[in-house]
Amino acid sequence: MRTMELPISPHFGTAVTGERRLARPELEEEFDSVMTGTNGGTLFGLRRIGKSSEVLACAERLRDRKPPYLVLYQDAQGCGSEGKLLVDILKQLPPQGWRQRVTQLIADDNAIAATARDALQKLAGREADIQAYLSPIMDAVESSIDRSEQVVLVIDEFPWLCRNILESDSAQGRTRVDLLLAAMRRWRAKGVRMLLLGSVGMAALGRRHGLDLSHLIDLTRLEVPPLGDDEARIFVRRLAAGGEARGWTGQHAERLIEESAALYTSILQRGFQQLTVGGRAAPLEKISDIFAEKIRPNLDATFYEQFDRRLPFYRELPEPLPALLTRLLQTVISSTNPVEYQSLRGNDPVDDADLGDALAMLREDGFLQMRAPRDQGQVWRPASTLVTAWWRQRRGGAFV
């Protein structure tokens, strides 16, 4: 399988090598509209479903606009504190402009200790010095924002940063995360658009630790759904053209699409690779066995374990969420039709806030999808066929 290195902005952090990407006009328009016409968005969901590819492509489109956007990218999974996050972001700013204004405001603020001012001017030093004066430093960043510069800040694995703070500081972690969320919202109000990504969502983390997630309500929820059937056919044709597999036919393509657990590009690529070992298409009569013996088992480590890891975290949430989440999953995944919101309330009274939080968690974590038709209430269904495949193959239809 050949990969394509995606073009990266000089102000877009680390380079990423990803899958060959299929242009999806409606999805691209949605991303562009959110990132240019609102305060930004959130993009939570499973790993390996194409989130990074869509974000990188959106970043390049923003850079190509006239005037161009300054797009900053920061992977926060390895960050242990909001102070380190701030320094890593400032390092990506051009020396002139925003960074210069930030450092000047901090240098002029005698309420910030000299050690912290020196560390920020040099963008190096003791993290503890910066952390101790983080509130006035974040205020200085807010004061230095110039809306005309059109800055977009992308923070990958933002929930993991919050989780790291909460788990490392049991006494003040919640206060620190709430202050960070509040400061970032003020930055957005001043003109910094943001896109917060994560392989897990914020809803479960917020409920477990009592976070004030109202600071995120100005962000638009974005999703990367599986390909439609026609999109999948186009994608497979491109794979076949690039892979130059001998003997590959339209029947092979249809069988690949039919057998795949979900029409995400990474799953289709893996299937294509296994069906064209040695540069030759596998016999049609062997495709079912290849999927059963080589392709579906490999989904465990890539996808199914992600679902499995979410369940123990749910069990640690305050009551009544553990049992409620299990019931909601079983109800929706086992139903042959979308389930209406009122049906999810069950026979026992359920508080609206608890039900809303539980559904938000299942949606953010890639289990469920919601539609809200004009003439009826919400309806819920599995987020993709990958969820039902996991439920059938790994859980046996039960959640234990």
Q: What is the number of beta strands?
A: 10
Number of domains: 3
N to C succession of SSEs: EEHEHEHHHHHEHHEHEHHHHHEHEEH
Q: Per CATH, what is the topology of the largest domain?
A: Rossmann fold
How are the strands of the largest sheet arranged? 4-5-6-3-7
Coarse morphology: globular
- Poorly predicted runs are 1-19
Reported for the largest beta sheet, the result is: 5 strands, parallel
What is the averaged pLDDT score?
90
Q: What's the CATH architecture name of the largest domain? A: 3-Layer(aba) Sandwich
**Count of alpha and pi helical runs:** 17
Strand composition percent: 5-15%
The CATH class designation of the largest domain is: Alpha Beta
Helicity level, as a percent range? 40-55%
Measured distance between first and last alpha carbons: 37 Å
For CATH, the homologous superfamily of the largest domain is named as P-loop containing nucleotide triphosphate hydrolases
Structural class: alpha/beta
Radius of gyration: 23 Å
Task: Please explain how this structure is put together.
With about 400 residues, this protein is an alpha/beta fold. It has three domains: about 5-220, Rossmann fold (3-Layer(aba) Sandwich); about 230-305; about 315-395, Arc Repressor Mutant, subunit A, CATH 1.10.10. The protein has 17 helices and ten strands. The strands form three sheets. The chain has a five-stranded parallel β-sheet, with helices on both faces. A three-stranded antiparallel β-sheet has the order 8-10-9. It is globular and about 75 Å long. It starts with a strand and ends in a 7-residue tail after the last helix. Residues about 1-20 have low confidence and may be disordered.
